[in-house]
Amino acid sequence: MEAAKSGGMNFAGAIGDTYGKLLQNSSYRYFALVLGAPVNLFTLFVHRVHKAGDIYASTERETRQELLASGLQEQLKTEFVEQLHSKIRFFGQQASVAELDSQAAQLAAERFENIVAERVDSRLREKGLARSTFISTFQALLRHPWFLPLSIIPGFPLYLLILLYSSPYLKYIFERLVMTVFVIFGVAVLVFTILYISPFDPAVNILGQTATDAQIIEFNRVYGLDQPYLVQLWDNVKGIAMFDLGKAFAGNEDIVTAIGRKFPVTLELTLLSLLMAIVIAIPIGIISATKPNSWFDYTFMLIALIGLSIPSFWQGLVFILGFSIKLQWLPATFSPSNWMTFIMPVVVLGTGLTAAIARMTRASTLEVIHEDYIITATAKGLSKRKVLLKHAVRNALIPIVTVIGLQFGGMLGGAAVTEKVFNISGLGSYIVDKQFIPDIPAIMGGVVYTAITISLINAIIDILYAFVDPRIRSKMKQY
Amino acid sequence: MVNASAARRETQLKLKTSQEYRQAGFAWVGSLIVTLALLLSSYDWETQAIKPYVWVACCLYGAFTLLQVLLTLLIRRDIMVRGEIHGVTRALGYIQILSLVTGNVFLVTAAFQLIRKRKSPEYTLAVYTLLTQIAVIAVSAINLYKPYVADTFLTGMFILLAVAAFHLLVVVLTAKFVRRRQVPRRLVWVAYPLLLTSLTGNLFALALGIILLVRIRNRDNPAVAGWEDVLERLTRNTTAMLGLLFIAFLFSVSVCSYVTFDYGMAVDNNYSLILQPPSLAYPLGTDNFGRCLFTRIIFGARISLIVGVMSTVLPLLLGGTLGAISGYYGRYTDNIIMRALDVLYAIPGILLAIAIIAAFGANTVNLILALSVGAIPTYARTMRANVLQVSTYEFVDAARAFGSSNAAIIFKHIVPNSLAPMIVKSTLTIGGAVISTSSLSFLGLGIEPHIPEWGNILKLGSTYLETNSYLAIFPGLAIIALVLSFNFLGDGLRDALDPKME
């Protein structure tokens, strides 16, 4: 019973402490004050009632009187006037006496307030008392056994926020997710706005120049294009969140269904390319870094640079020409059921990424290899292989994974070109085809859902890092 | 045993530090690759016959490559036995200069480096100026085989030849008079005409003229500016210089093509010459409208360079400014700018470009804007990281203590000191912009289809992949060469600007 009670006390104390820290964080403060408004208002009320009869107020009044009587403020002001004069003389500036006086008075008043607060604090401490603040009132209230159970319902969002703030991991994950949601929202707004301010009239584009006014009005009414900007924007954002973007302008098909049918193809292609890139590039990069300026290094880095410089559509055409038309090894057109048809698109899409990862791996391993801890590991007598794999590569992998995460986005975009070359009906070629109409909601859906995938993947990579990399972990705990 | 190993290491170090040996090695490997490529293409697999012209070229290349291998071995022996390269070996370099006739840049650049014992960056630049000019003349001269040429062709060719002769003179003069960082005052009479010749689009001439003038102005000042070291490291990097050579050549050809090429060849339909295979008059064949593919590729270079450079410069300026402000002011400013750019960063560049083009239509200006917008965040991030680092240096504190305004601190102290990574980044991303441009044109979303642009040419060619594959292959090779050049240059600039890498 006693232990449970002290446990409860500790728990309450932890909540109070965390809330105190939270209120010092400028970006969290406002959320906390708004989210826990009922609890905060009650605490404020209690705080005010207490403060009136507080010893702090009387001590402050006394100290202020004393200091004013000692002429401290005048003394500070003359000091500041002198300093300002010498500063102006040094820089050769001009300023009127009245201006200087008012500046000095302001600075003196600020300093005076600081001194008063300091004195009061030290006096109170001498007497063994603490100043009663909003947060100390809150902590005192928490110690009351009835406060927490009663306030848990009105203050639930506040307590949740405090819980998040109490653990650095939870806080980090929460912040990263909030940012992702913000980015996704921003992407939706941006893409919609770009398409909205387009000088083209979709109705005329779809219905043709011969369309009558009545037809155009009807078209605009059906697709909600007669609504004001904000209403349309809200509808679109809501549509993206609820996976319901309505029907495309042309073809009368449901956009989200079409995207849902095409997206897996693109994703499969991209993931296979990613796999290929990682399997090929990382060993090459590591070997190049262990033998810098060797034949192996030069050859493979030259190939990597060429790989970076080849336009994927040209590479696709040359592959089709070589392997499908001349040699007839691989079929030229894509069909999801035949794995042979995957080879060429995957290689073409993955070439750029392979080259980028190989270069990045080499650079990052080279950087790590000269660190002190590698010399230590070698000096300990570890085998070359062990030093390389356990110490060098593990540390070098961190920037590589970041690059892979960032490049993945580029690949999802670049898939559009590869898909067009090999005639694959993925999301990329869907967006390109819709662009010619231009079918605004379809383009918007395709681009936004791609961006959402990329944002989520990058958020997951970042969060995983927090658990894998001890450096990020320690940095996280610092704030 | 220990002595033997130490001696071996010493010779290895000697060989490694010898610029001539390294370059000679690079030259024969590069030349061998070209020879092998020629060998492969000299045999026609379908008709089982040897193509005579390609075969002759292959033999010539092979002979010079063989000579270069021997020369490399000679240099190696000289260094190992005497510690330096013998004068006779250097004189053999003059023979290799003859490979200029075959257009073998690897051997020619190595030979020019070999024949001079003391090389100043000015000499190297002068050599590359000359090579650029000769390449432009050679490419323009192909027009002689055409049934008709542009009205200004002859005048243009004579001017170009005169400029080339002058550039040869500049090579001799810089070799003779420019000593290590010392340029005699008389060379002003070379520098100004050199600047005038850069009107032909010869970027090397422009650079050399400016450098000569600056050196002459600072000749009594013993201080070594940072850029001089960078210049020296860059001119020693063969791959970077070759990349720059190709870029300068394309730029110069783009400028000179106004005079020496006939635009009609590239755009006017000629139904009597549809889908001709490569011949002397039409070196890369003709397309389905009877237009000369070679001329079209030459005129396409202009668009690729303009779009590539513009869509790098715009985000460089915009992103750079945003990044500098964000990094310098920190806190709320930083948060707002970077979060806004995060939104832009989440959309893949190509898809954003497609969305923008869908909204505003496909034309060159929209294409440049569309590609620029997507690239802003990367530049802003790079600049912000640099500025964050530079802001902590003491000279910034000193400037603040002296009462400089924020704008003065940012633009006079912080930005100039954080430019180097931005320059490297932009050089490396121009290549990406060139690829994006041609990719979008290939999809039909880029440059208007009637303009000869590399992506457009490829799109047309891709429909004749089975019967006339050269229509798709040659413009692709041009794109690769340009992008590869920018990547080589970017890598070289990174190494030159970051001494830590050495």
From TrEMBL, chain A:
Q: Which residues form the ABC transmembrane type-1 domain?
A: 263-465
Q: Which residues cross the membrane?
A: 30-49, 146-165, 177-197, 269-288, 300-325, 337-358, 396-417, 447-468
Q: Chief localization class? A: membrane
A GO cellular component annotated for this chain's UniProt record is: plasma membrane
Q: Which UniProt keywords apply?
A: Cell membrane, Membrane, Transmembrane, Transmembrane helix, Transport
Q: Which GO terms describe its biological process?
A: transmembrane transport
According to the UniProt entry, the coiled-coil residues are none
Annotated compartments:
Cell membrane
Q: Which SUPFAM superfamilies match?
A: MetI-like
How would you describe this protein's topology in the membrane? Multi-pass membrane protein
Q: Extract the InterPro entries matched here.
A: BPD_transp_1_N (IPR045621), MetI-like (IPR000515), MetI-like_sf (IPR035906)
Q: What is this protein called?
A: Membrane protein
Organism (species): Paenibacillus albidus
**Which lineage is the organism of this entry classified under, starting from the top rank?**
Bacteria, Bacillati, Bacillota, Bacilli, Bacillales
UniProtKB/TrEMBL annotation, chain B:
- Membrane topology, record value: Multi-pass membrane protein
Kindly give the InterPro entries that the UniProt entry links to this protein. Answer: BP-dependent_transpt_permease (IPR050366), MetI-like (IPR000515), MetI-like_sf (IPR035906), OppC_N (IPR025966)
Q: Which GO terms describe its cellular component?
A: plasma membrane
List the CDD domains hit by this protein, alphabetically. TM_PBP2
| Domain ABC transmembrane type-1, first and last residues per copy | 301-490
> Example GO biological process term?
transmembrane transport
Q: Which Pfam families match?
A: BPD_transp_1 (PF00528), OppC_N (PF12911)
> Which UniProt keywords are present, listed alphabetically?
Cell membrane, Membrane, Transmembrane, Transmembrane helix, Transport
Q: Where are the transmembrane segments?
A: 23-41, 53-75, 95-115, 127-145, 157-178, 190-214, 240-261, 303-329, 349-376, 428-447, 467-490
Q: Where in the cell is it found?
A: Cell membrane
The yes or no answer to whether the keyword Transmembrane helix is present is yes
Q: Which domain of life is it from?
A: Bacteria
Q: Which family does it belong to?
A: Belongs to the binding-protein-dependent transport system permease family.
Protein known as: ABC transmembrane type-1 domain-containing protein
